[in-house]
Amino acid sequence: MRLEQIKLNMMQMGQNVESALDQAIKALATRNADGFKAVHEIEKSTNQFHIQLDDECMAFLAMHGPVAKDLRLIFSIIKINADLERMGDQAVNIAHTGKDYMGRPEIHLPPEIEEMSRFVQKMVRDSLDSFVREDLPLANEVLQLDNEVDVRKNKVFKDLMQSIRRQPETVEAAMDIILIARNLERIGDHATNIAEDVIFVCTGKDIRHGGQKN
Amino acid sequence: MNTNKILTIDQLSAGFGQAEIVKKISMAISTHEIAALIGPSGCGKSTFLRCLNRLHEENSEAWVNGEVNLEGKNIYQEGIDPVHVRSQIGMVFQKPNPFPSMSIFENVAAGLTIRGIKKRAYVSQVVEKSLRQAALWDEVKDKLKSPGTSLSGGQQQRLCIARALAINPPVILMDEPTSALDPISTSKIEELLLQLKKEVTIVIVTHNMQQAARISDQTSFFLMGELIETNNTKQFFTNPDDIRSENYISGRFG
Predict the structure, then answer these.
(1) Residues 6+ apart with CB under 8 A from A125
(2) Does the distance separating the beta carbons of B245 and A68 come in below 8 Å?
């Protein structure tokens, strides 16, 4: 199989994960518990992609012995495959927790959850677009957005801790929201990994952990 | 990377008659390292290699310009005997070429014999040491009197390496030394080279890019007589500086 085809298959998996995330966020925002079913459906196909892509990468390594940019590309696809699979799992976690949350006495979703969702969806989309287009500025934007997500996650944690202290009877619903914020933040971290891989593929530079290696 | 340069090549050009095969190449090779020369057929890498021990000039109409400095001394300087140069810079060829009329022992001892060294105990000692260095001793110690040509291809090539080692040269040149060998013999030679580099500097021309990646410390890419890039091997195969190197090693041309 050609490297181009493996890249295309990876992008299909990426679209799958994007749509799982979109469905989870939409269902949560509209308080439509049925909407979470689609997330579980998509997850099955994401898992198929995960296994298939690993197989294809392994065969490519064995048969082509890639070097230089081809090597950086296949190495990154292997890592991105793992990131995408985890992102899919986090979307499923949001669906599970979201369903629990909807069955409890209502507390309002903090506005930061809506903002985080928007940022994280953009990060996922842009990280995959930057991969396809080898677009370094876009990959760098993804890295910047991660900070915005983290700030909002911290605010959600802090606000809900206070809310739990004030109204202990809301603890379950508040914990659900904290878990969802955590899931979103983790998805952002995986998108960040993808953006870092894009920079590695294009430039050969490893910028992870503050670029210690360079 | 080792910074002590045993060979420095300065503006080296070479060719035959009107044809310029090697064009103004400068590079340095570090002591106790393996330097790989790669490039498509006809790119000048073998001619370049043969300039490093003055073997190129043995061809008719051959010419060389520029300098090759071995430990700071230009081997093309007037008055230098090319035969002496070749005793300092040994060579192993693509096809194993043991002297057909000689035994295994005589093959390894040949370099000493032609220098008039005949002391039996000393010669035996050097032959054993060289065969051990070439990882061949255990396989031939009981049949040293058999003809060199009675060995397998891989063994013959290790015999040629032992023959080159016997006169204790600081540098050995190798021109595609494993291209006529099966994968097991190839792997034995590669392991041997990694051991040998502790004692000698090795310059190897290879068409097998994975071989260059596996065993060399420095890789140089030649194209149409020019040196396109010399780089640390890991860097060369993961993120080369020149797009032409990238295209060549990724199989996009050549």
Answers:
(1) A18
(2) yes
Whether A71 sits inside 8 A of B249 (CB atoms) is no
Mean pLDDT of B230-238: 95
Contact A68 B246 (CB under 8 A): yes
- Cα–Cα dist B214/B211, whole Å: 5
Q: Is B118 exposed, middle or buried (0-12, 13-18, 19+ CB in 10 A)?
A: exposed
With respect to residue B32, please indicate whether it lies within any of the assigned structural domains.
yes
B238 falls within a domain: no
- Is B139 contained in some domain? yes
Number of structural domains (chain B) is 1
Asked if B249 reaches chain A (Cβ–Cβ under 8 Å), the answer is yes
* pLDDT at position B1 over 70: no
pLDDT tens digits, residue range A10-39? 999 999 999 999 999 999 999 999 999 999
User: In chain A, how many domains are there?
Assistant: 1
Whole-structure pTM value: 0.85
DSSP-assigned beta bridge partners for residue B8:
B28, B69
- Please name every residue paired with B232 in a beta bridge, in sequence order, or none if there are none: B218
**Residue B85 neighbours by CB distance under 10 Å:** 19
Task: Confirm whether B208 is domain-assigned.
Answer: no
Q: Kind of pairing, strands B62-70 and B5-16?
A: antiparallel
What digits encode the pLDDT tens for the residues B127-185? 999 999 999 999 999 999 999 999 999 999 999 999 999 999 999 999 999 998 899 99
The candidate with the shortest Cα–Cα distance to A194, out of A127, A125, A118, is A127
Task: Please say if the pLDDT value at position A167 is more than 60.
Answer: yes
**A34 in Cβ contact with A24 (< 8 Å):** no
